[in-house]
């Protein structure tokens, strides 16, 4: 049964197709960052997107009114600290096919399903490539951390000499010692939250928190550091079984990427990275035919917000300048 072209294009415009593209992205086991898309604790206010860090109030203090408006003033009655999630991605992704292939795709339900699946897969892959470029820059920023002070022994960003990065045992020791420290309740391993969400000059307030399990930690390694660890065990004939990162954190929580700005490795609370996808104009794919040559163009506008939440515990190590 031939599928009517205009009806199919109308179906592609539906917001459901936009959602399906992201579901395909989120279920891709090879995609690095899609597990950090969130549904809860996200506030959308016009163009602004915020992550709300919440904590409980005492039972007797509970009130049914979430907020109170008095004139132009707004006061939230629940315990919540907002973290702005800037726009990471707002691009127009496009796929192209020629007129003959598109006509073949409309010849049967099976063919049109295969065509749609390929269209969504290729678009989802493009989105993932954009995220792979954006997110390491988002995480590996000195603004997210407090530089380690050798005198006070405080801070969560350490700068290490070149000799450190050549020694797999020293690297592993830092990762194991650091992750052990992150399990203990402390204010020393996070920058905290802004005292005034709209004014960074007011400074930050560290939050007393911990990561309750190693399996709730993300161990993010630069590829060169990961290779040093992997090769080092063979070179020194060391039994690395007792120092197995996968056993400590879980294989799914060991992430490898090319890290920018001199960063070599991080261990952070899985809640630190917050991603949120938005529906822009509640639209799916738009279609345009190029009359000069019959090319069939399909456009999708993905919008993704994201931020690194500095109130959760994290330790980072970078190369000393």
Structure at a glance:
The chain has 321 residues and is of the alpha+beta class. The chain is built from eight helices and 18 strands.
* Strand/helix succession: HHEEEEEEEHHEHHEEEHHEEEEEEE
Helix fraction, binned, reads: 25-40%
Which word captures the global form? globular
Task: Give the mean pLDDT.
Answer: 90
Gyration radius, rounded: 24 Å
How many individual domains? 2
Question: Can you characterise this structure?
Answer:
With 321 residues, the protein is of the alpha+beta class. The protein has two domains: 158 residues, no CATH class; 141 residues, no CATH class. The protein is built from eight helices and 18 strands. The strands form six sheets. Strands 8-18-13-11-12 form a five-stranded mixed β-sheet. Strands 1-2-5 form a three-stranded antiparallel β-sheet, with no helix packed on it. Strands 6-17-14 form a three-stranded antiparallel β-sheet, covered by helices on one side. A hairpin with a 2-residue loop joins strand 1 and strand 2. Helix 2 crosses helix 4 and helix 6 crosses helix 7. It starts with a helix and ends with a strand.
Give a quick set of tags describing it.
321 residues, three-stranded antiparallel sheet, five-stranded mixed sheet, alpha+beta
């Amino acid at each position: 049964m031939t599928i009517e072209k205009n009806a199919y294009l109308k179906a592609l415009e539906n917001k459901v197709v936009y959602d399906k593209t992201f579901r395909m992205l989120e279920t891709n086991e090879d995609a690095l960052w899609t597990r950090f898309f969130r549904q809860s604790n996200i506030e959308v206010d016009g163009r602004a997107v915020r992550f709300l860090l919440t904590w409980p109030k005492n039972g007797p203090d509970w009130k049914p009114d979430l907020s109170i408006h008095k004139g132009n003033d707004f006061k939230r009655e629940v315990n919540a600290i907002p973290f702005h999630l800037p726009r990471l991605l707002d691009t127009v992704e496009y796929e192209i096919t020629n007129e003959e292939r598109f006509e073949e795709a409309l010849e049967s339900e099976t063919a049109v399903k295969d065509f749609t699946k390929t269209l969504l897969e290729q678009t989802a892959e493009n989105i993932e490539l954009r995220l792979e470029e954006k997110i390491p820059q988002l995480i590996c920023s000195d603004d997210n951390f407090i530089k380690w002070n050798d005198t006070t022994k405080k801070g969560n960003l350490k700068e290490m000499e070149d000799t450190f990065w050549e020694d797999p045992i020293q690297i592993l020791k830092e990762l194991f010692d650091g992750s052990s420290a992150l399990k203990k309740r402390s204010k020393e391993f996070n920058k905290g939250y802004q005292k005034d969400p709209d004014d960074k000059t007011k400074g930050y307030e560290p939050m007393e928190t911990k990561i309750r399990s190693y399996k709730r930690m993300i161990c993010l390694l630069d590829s060169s550091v990961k290779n040093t660890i992997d090769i080092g065990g063979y070179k020194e004939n060391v039994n690395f079984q007792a120092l197995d990162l996968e056993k400590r954190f879980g294989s799914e929580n060991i992430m490898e990427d090319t890290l920018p700005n001199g960063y070599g490795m991080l261990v952070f609370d899985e809640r630190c990275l917050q991603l949120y996808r938005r529906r822009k104009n509640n639209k799916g794919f738009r279609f345009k035919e190029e009359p000069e040559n019959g090319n069939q163009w399909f456009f999708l506008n993905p919008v993704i917000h994201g931020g690194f939440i500095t109130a959760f515990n994290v330790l980072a190590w970078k190369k000393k300048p």
